[in-house]
Amino acid sequence: MRVRKLKKQIMKIFPSNTIKKLDAYTIEHEPIQSIQLMERAANALTEAITNRWDNETPVTVFAGPGNNGGDALAVARMMAEKGYKVGYVMWPLRTAVSGKQNTPGGATELMEVLGKDESLRRIRLGIEKLQ
Fold first, then answer.
1. Measured between alpha carbons, how far is 38 from 69 in angstroms, rounded to an integer?
2. Which residues lie closer than 8 Å to 92 by C-beta, 6 or more apart?
3. Which of 77, 8, 68, 16 is nearest to 46 (CA)?
4. Which of 4, 31, 84, 94 has the greatest number of CB atoms lying within 10 Å of its CB?
5. Quick check: 75 and 58 in contact, CB under 8 A?
6. Mean pLDDT of 63-83
7. Cα–Cα distance between 6 and 9 in angstroms, integer?
8. 67-87 burial, b for 16+ CB within 10 Å, e for fewer?
């Protein structure tokens, strides 16, 4: 595993209730859909990770339900596309596969965008990578 040196950067960390308000404000004031915001967040995180670790570094992504879980799955997909060996764990798996959950977005929204067959294909592919 090779670690790349980065310039020191300042990162703001917000509590989840503030993030929800910022997301809602962005969706309301920019011509952007929730799924596009998810892709934007995943792209930024993927870039930060790939700038630090090369694709020989194994990666496991843990994704829960809701929008953060959707962000995590998008990061897993983007890293796999860049040649990283990515495994991911969805919690709870039943929620992610069925698309039934109480919170909006996340696995449900991804399944609506990708379709059930493509979503299941990607889940199976991820499980195969873990074996």
1. 10
2. 65
3. 77
4. 84
5. no
6. 85
7. 8
8. bbbbbbbbbbbbbbeeebebb
d(CA 53, CA 46): 10
Evaluate the omega torsion of the peptide bond into residue 15 and state whether it is cis, within 30 degrees of 0.
no
Distance of CA 15 to the CA centre of its chain: 18
Tell me how far apart the alpha carbons of residues 24 and 18 are, in angstroms, rounded to a whole number.
10
What does the pLDDT read at residue 42? 92
Over 60: is that where the pLDDT of 52 sits?
yes
Long-range contacts of 117-124 (CB under 8 A, 24+ apart): 122/73, 122/77, 123/90, 123/96, 123/97
Query: Looking at the predicted structure, is the pLDDT value of residue 11 above 70?
Result: no
101 has a pLDDT exceeding 70: no
User: Model confidence at 46, in pLDDT bands (50, 70, 90)?
Assistant: very high
The three-state DSSP-derived secondary structure of 32-83 is CCHHHHHHHHHHHHHHHHHHHECCCCCEEEEECCCHHHHHHHHHHHHHHHCC
